[in-house]
Amino acid sequence: MASVYSQYAWLIPLFPLLAFLVLMAVGRQLxxxxxxxxxxxxxxxxVLAILIFVERIDGKVADYTWSEWQWLSIGDFNxxxxxxxxxxxxxxxxxxxxxxxxxxxxxxGYMKGDERISVFFSYVAxxxxxxxxxxxxxxxxxxxxxxxxxGVCSFLLIGFWYQKPEARAAAKKAxxxxxxxxxxxxxxxxxxxxYMPGHALDxxxxxxxxxxxxxxxxxxxxxxxxxxxxxxAIGKSGQFPLHTWLPDAMEGPTPISALIHxxxxxxxxxxxxxxxxxxFLASPDALLVVAYVGGFTAIFAATIGIAQNDIKRVLAYxxxxxxxxxxxxxxxxxxxxxxxxxxxTHAFFKALLFLAAGSVIHAVKTQDIRExxxxxxxxxxxxxxxxxxxLALSGVPPFSGFWSKDTILNEAYHNNQLLFWIGIVxxxxxxxxxxxxxxxxxxxxxxxxxxxHESPASMTLPLIVLAVLAVVAGFVMTPFNPWLGGFxxxxxHEEAVxxxxxxxxxxxxxLGIVVGYVLYYKRPVQLPNAExxxxxxxxxxxxxxxxxxxxxxxIVTPLKGFGWLLQLFDEYVVDGLVRxxxxxxxxxxxxxxxxxxxxxxxxxxxxLIGLIILMLALVARRFFxx
Length: 626
Prior knowledge:
- The protein is mainly alpha-helical.
- The protein folds into four domains: 1-138, no CATH class; 139-211 and 221-542, no CATH class; 543-585; 596-626.
- 73% of the residues lie in helices and 3% in strands.
- The protein has 25 helices and two strands.
- The protein has helices at 11-30, 34-56, 87-110, 117-136, 140-158, 165-195, 203-211, 219-236, 245-248, 254-262, 265-275, 277-281, 284-305, 311-332, 337-364, 380-393, 400-415, 417-442, 457-472, 483-489, 499-522, 526-532, 536-542, 547-595, 600-623; strands spanning 64-74, 77-85.
- Strands 1-2 form a two-stranded antiparallel sheet.
- A hairpin with a 2-residue loop joins strand 1 (64-74) and strand 2.
- Helix 17 packs across helix 21.
- The longest helix has 49 residues, at 547-595.
């Protein structure tokens, strides 16, 4: 059946782009009204995304592709730009537009009073446009262009408060580290372009080339292409070892943290792997790399989250860990449905947690959880919604995170026992650090001089909406109703009930909460003593396994030394030659100006000297011919 709304999908990224242009042109004059332009643009994009998604629910609408704009022609090779709508990116369109809409609404209250509020909303609109363009791209080259634009926007938003040195440093760090991953993606694109029949880079041709299994592309090359693409995903989705930029990105405004961590930048890496999944399925070795990098990142980041004291950094390492879960689900190789399902649920409860954290920061003016406490009495909506998000993240049934995490663990249980136990242990640490945050922030007594107050309706309304979704979103793919899996893959999807997996995942989640309750609520007096004299293990976790220090020692310091040598070369060799040339020309000019001063006797003297030199030269040539 032909699509009615998919042909207008190009309007979805166009609305935020128009908002960006308007805000950049006249945003200063609009002042506070500029926020409404961003909200209206995102509402329009969300409504159209919903119409496209609903249209495809029954499975009778074919994929829609428009690729008529030829923008590059080299010989017989042509590159077209356009857009494509499939079930996968239809789901992504809903996620991105919905979270971006709520972030825009929330930001109206959170950023109130900021002198550059119109600039903020213009950057958010450009950021959303970039992500939406990436989602509907019809080929990998077009996707790569929007991929880089997403990176630029993240730089602008992370460093939005550029007057803070920490924000400037975090923006540069995010931009540089993600560029490392982008180099890998570019190499993968070049390899794919070279070996693809007809040098085609559109997703339909990629599917036909790799899903058919005709062997036209050598196995080793396929593995290299897949791993290079995955390196790009590692950078954007903050996987080990390119994860260090993501926690530092917390220097940006909290609504941006929610947008980056829930629906845009970090989701781009997971979406890229799912979008090119045919390449990975053709290389079991590449899938294994994806699975083990994801599994290691999941438990690695979860352990770090236990020892962080900045509420946003705890959530940031939680994002890194959960992205590891998604990659693990993709790498197990059954299908990309489990990884995308976790991305779907994670978008709601992680946006909820970040926005609730922003509500807390807005009230108490600090991000250190050790300086908080007792907020539940004055901030009931924030407390309840944060608790719902924490339970969803901890995998407690029936909240959405339980169903999506259980789907990944179930696949790991049947296909890779090592990854299954890694996921189980990571689930325990997840529940532990979230209970630590909740009990330290919302229970007990105040630890600083502040007067907490509930946030305005523009901030609490998005929290309530996201809290409802954090409860119910998981029911779209359960063992009893695995609808989303069939919708994404176009195939009948079944997920057997595995009581062992369910019991273990629920048990470790509850155990983490109980341990957190005992350590941080039942006996809170022990907390300060434990952290005033931290153990070596606590120091190791708090310093994030010293990864930043290792990078500084291995990469940054040698590059600084090399940069110092280049600076010396530039200053004394390059600049020296320039200064020498300049001095020579200036000196000759001065000599000429002194000689040509209009005095006849000086002209005569110069002529006489010149005549003598000429005569001496002739005499010398007679006796010394050359």
